[in-house]
Amino acid sequence: MMHxxxxxxxxxxxxxxSKDGDARxxxxxxxxxxxxxxxxxxxxxxVKWDCTVKVWExxxxxxxxxxxxxxxWVNSLALSTEYVIRTGAFDHTRKQYSSPEEMKMAAFExxxxxxxxxxxxxxxxxxxxxxxxxxPSVSKHPKTRxxxxxxxxxxxxFSLDGQWIASAxxxxxxKLWNGITGMFVAAFRGHVGPVYQICWSADSRLxxxxxxxxxxxxxxxxxxxxKQDLPGHEDEVFxxxxxxxxxxxxxxxxxxxxxxxxx
Length: 263
What we know:
Layout: E1 2-6, E2 11-17, E3 23-27, E4 32-37, E5 52-57, E6 62-68, E7 74-79, H1 82-87, H2 100-115, E8 122-126, E9 131-134, E10 144-146, E11 153-158, E12 164-169, E13 173-178, E14 184-189, E15 195-200, E16 206-211, E17 216-220, E18 225-230, E19 237-242, E20 248-253, E21 258-262
């Protein structure tokens, strides 16, 4: 698994994880590993695979906090601020910046607006069928334990405005949770196979899911109903993503085909 780190506007580093139990931070400019994050006792996938969640300071590789509670592998993690960290200064307006300094300032403004006065929240999903909502900067103890899935939780994702959490499970369902409290809101059912991945539209009104049943489904958060079915893949759909402008959806699957869907 590889995950890009952004200096709020400038992609310079990325982090990888490995079966050797380490995560490594790489510098794109230097073209080498600059920090090794060790401490996990089992294989690390998605930068997060044993029964614990470890929070690191990335400039020196210092372990800040260890979050314990899950009884099996942690499959997925999501930050409430993840979208603005990933996109930096760029949003659906496609605004152009006159200098790197202006771009960096815009990125900080977006991040601070998204974060507000509350601490960043982290959600984890596990093979133990549960999810935990954390505030790592405040406590090592979970804020809420989220139960309801009947099989392993494969993917968790905050809505882009941080108000919702969506989860995908091998129990063939997608569940919607309150992004602040972690309370259960609704279950979206319609897939006939495990749900592998989910993603949000830029306005946080729609949710996309991809499944082993070879389909993508678009769910309406307001009505809590299926809005659109997107068949077309000939096998399992492993990956889905929504463009920041909300106009396109991409999907990839076991049929070795990448599909682009227009909104």
